Amino acid sequence: MRRDMALRRLAEAERRFGLYVYRKADLSAVLGEEGNPLTRTLTSLCAAGIMERAVRGVYVFSYARGIGDGTLDAIVQCLRPTSISWESLESVLSKWGVISQIPIGRVTYMTTGREGEFDTRFGVIDLTHSSLPASRIVPNLVMRGDGRLPMASKMFAYENLKATGRNLHLVDMEELEWDYDEN
C-alpha cells in the first residue's frame, strides 16, 4: 500500500474512532491488508516515521493527535487485550497523595494477565499480575473517560501494594487512614 493512502486511513481511524495504538492484527482491518503485504506496508510506515513500534507487536500512529497521557494505557490494552488491567500501586497512590514520590516516566499497572516491564519512548509500563477475581476488582476501580484504563481507588491501590510487598515504606499512613475514616 502506498504511504499516502495508509496515512489517510490511519488519520481517518483516529478521527472517527480515536484509534492510534494498534496490534498488527488491528492494522490489518484498518489498512485492508494481511500477511506479507501488511508486513511490508508496516515496515515501510515505520521506516518513514508514520508508525512507530512501541513494543513487540504494538504500533503507534506517530501523527496522532491523541498521543498523551492515555498512550501508555492504550499500549497496555493492546498488550493484554483479554485481561483486566488498571493503573494502581505507586502511580495511583501518588495521585491520591498517599505517597509523596511522583513516579517520573513510569506507570504501574495491575493486570490479570502476565506481568512484565516494557520500555517505550512514552514511558515505562510496569505490569504486575493479580489473581483476584473480577468480582473483587471491578467494584474497586475508578473509571476515567477518553478510553483511559480505570485506576484503583485509594484503598484498593494500597491493598494492591501490600499484596506485592513493595515500597510500603513510602506510604503516608495518616493520609491513607484519614480517607478511610471519612468513608
TrEMBL record:
This is Transcriptional regulator.
